[in-house]
Write a structure and sequence with these properties.
Layout (H helix, E strand, L loop, with lengths): L5 E3 H10 L2 E3 L10 H12 L7 E6 L18 E5 L1 H10 L9 H6 L7 E4 L8 E3 L7 E3 H4 L6 H8 L6 H19 L1 E9 L1 H12 L6 H12 L3 H15 L8 H11 L14 H25 L10 H13 L8 H11 L9 H11 L3 H13 L21 H11 L22 E4 L12 E4 L1 H9 L5 H7 L3 H6 L14 H22 L15
Parallel strand pairs: 2-4, 3-8
Antiparallel strand pairs: 1-8, 3-4, 5-6, 5-7, 9-10
Helix pairs in contact: 1-3, 2-3, 6-7, 8-9, 9-11, 10-12, 11-12, 11-13, 12-13, 13-15, 14-16, 14-17, 15-16
Length: 533
């Protein structure tokens, strides 16, 4: 029996639930959000055209039995093109496709992708992400279920039982259910071995926005099956959960691996590489990324709001991948501080690539540090001016926020205690920048303290740094000093918030200058003499 050229949505849901399809191991990870998923189902419900898919059936055991998200798979059908649509269709109906382990489904936000029909009026029934709304909503997981009792679903959604609207909604939902389940998507089929499937994938995506680095990652996957699933994907998810999503990108990981391979086997020539060489390059890249993230957190970069200049951290990851001893001394912190003070990569295009070439061409770690220090010395040293503590966007202060976090995280730095929990000390206890007062003062870093969520809630409840907030927080002098905060007075002696913020700006500038001096010179006579992490 020939494979179908049209596949119904009902079949996709059943195949997903039963784990009958998988995704090629070199394919992209699922990466769509709730709005995209809901719009896809809304298009299907309205009979609008949806682009087709390309599926593959391996012939004569021509493929290893591995999936995109599982080490093994029993699926006989692989998706070459259309993973986002197939997965989104299942997710909207509350189905976790069998090819996704539960923990990966959670990491990708699968449970939050459910959609529902919003009962705005009997003439308008849009499909939107499933969440609490002003209008009643019927979840697609219930509407598309085999045992769906549509009149009961309408009543449960909040429409009055026995009303004319309830009957009309039930009739229209029944039509919508049939339209969705019977809608067919065109499917083209590929038959052949894994190399042929990869070439098909490349051609399908050649004009579809797939970047060169993604094609190179496909080639890596063919040499070391499972590299994406077992190393690269978890590394990106872990980085995102720690606030480093702008730093640890797929492009960076590919570049780290490519730079560790012999020149003759890089890029699309990786098929000529010994698999052991690729495994070693992947392992080295992983250790560099994890090592720099670990150290950055010890330095004070514990939240995405404190991490700016991702190109600087990416350079340090390249340095650690080429020279693992970079994770043993304090040059990385010093270099990062100097790069932040000079705003190194903000204005001059191509400077990051030039610095990278210096790292890659160095014969030793000492040579790399020396060359980077010489290049850094050519930049003017502006210090930290008052205006850098001001932000055009509330709560976003660019590189000076990262400098502040580094100063607070330095072993000889501020030793910042939380205002509510004195035993909670930054950065061993993760904290974020929290405003003392809401409103226009949020444009100044002087209006922000490093604090836990509990402290932030107290400040919010009491309208800022007020006597009532101080009494509830019961913070000691050490915490006040570390945060550069006065004890708020009552009555006519109460300090004006603008004055408090301006005084804190001066205090923060002085403390930042002290910290920056501690990080000078960039290259001490002996590596490691200042490192205490």
């Amino acid at each position: 029996m020939a494979d179908p050229t049209i596949i119904k949505i009902s079949d996709i849901l059943e195949m997903g639930r039963a784990g009958k399809f998988d995704v090629v191991s070199f394919g992209r990870a699922f990466e769509k959000g709730p709005e995209w998923v809901a719009e896809l189902l809304d298009s299907i419900a309205r009979g609008l055209p949806v682009s087709g898919m390309v599926w593959s059936k391996p012939q004569d055991n021509a493929w290893p039995d591995i999936g995109r998200y599982h080490a093994t798979t029993e699926a006989m059908t692989y998706i070459l093109d259309g993973q986002q649509r197939s997965t989104a269709t299942c997710a909207a109906a509350g189905i976790r496709p069998g090819c996704f382990p539960e923990w990966i489904w959670e990491a990708l936000g699968g449970p939050a992708l459910q959609a529902g029909v919003v009962l705005e009026s009997t003439r308008r029934l849009p499909i939107r992400p499933l969440r609490k709304r002003r209008h009643p909503q019927v979840a697609l997981r219930d509407l598309l279920a085999d045992d769906a009792d549509i009149p009961e679903l309408v009543i449960e959604a909040g429409v009055k039982e026995g009303s004319r609207e309830a009957a009309e909604y039930a009739a229209k939902l029944g039509d919508m259910r049939r339209q969705i389940l019977n809608a067919g998507l065109p499917v083209s089929w590929h038959y052949g071995d894994l190399a042929s499937a990869a070439e098909t994938y490349r051609r399908l995506n050649k004009d579809n926005g797939l970047a060169d680095w993604e094609f190179q990652t496909v080639a890596l996957e063919l040499v070391v099956p499972g590299a994406r699933r077992d190393v690269l994907d978890p590394l990106r998810w872990k980085a995102a959960s720690r606030g480093f999503s702008a730093v640890v990108t797929g492009k960076l990981l590919n570049e780290l691996i490519q730079r560790q391979l012999p020149a003759r086997t890089r890029r699309l020539k990786v098929d000529k590489a010994d698999p052991a060489e690729v495994v070693a390059a992947v392992t080295r890249a992983r250790h560099a990324v994890e090592g720099v993230m670990d150290r950055a957190e010890r330095y004070g970069l514990v939240d995405a709001s404190l991490i700016y200049m991702p190109a600087g951290l990416q350079l340090l990851m390249h340095l650690a991948a080429r020279f693992p001893e970079a994770l043993q001394d304090g040059f990385a912190r010093r270099w990062l501080v100097h790069a932040l003070v000079t705003d190194r990569y903000r204005t001059i295009q191509g400077l990051a690539e030039q610095d990278l070439r210096v790292v890659l061409s160095a014969a030793s770690y000492q040579d790399a540090c020396q060359a980077l220090a010489v290049r850094m010395a050519a930049d003017p040293w502006p210090g930290v001016a008052d205006e850098r503590l001001q932000s055009r966007v509330r709560g976003r202060f660019g590189t000076v926020a990262t400098l502040y976090a580094l100063a607070c995280g330095c072993p000889a730095g501020l030793g910042v205690q939380d205002l509510l929990e004195p035993e909670a000390v930054f950065p061993s206890t993760p904290m974020t920048l929290v405003p003392l007062w809401r409103g226009e003062l949020e444009h100044s870093l002087g209006n922000y303290v490093l604090a836990t969520a509990a402290t932030a809630e107290v400040l919010r409840e009491h309208g800022g740094w007020t006597p009532a907030a101080y009494e509830q927080l019961r913070c000691g002098n050490d915490a006040l000093d570390a945060q550069c905060l006065p004890v708020p007075a009552r009555g006519t002696a109460a300090a004006v918030p603008e004055i408090v913020v301006k005084e804190r700006e001066r205090d923060l500038l002085r403390r930042l200058e002290v910290f920056i001096q501690q990080m000078t010179p960039l290259l001490p006579h002996a590596h490691g003499q200042e490192e205490q992490a």
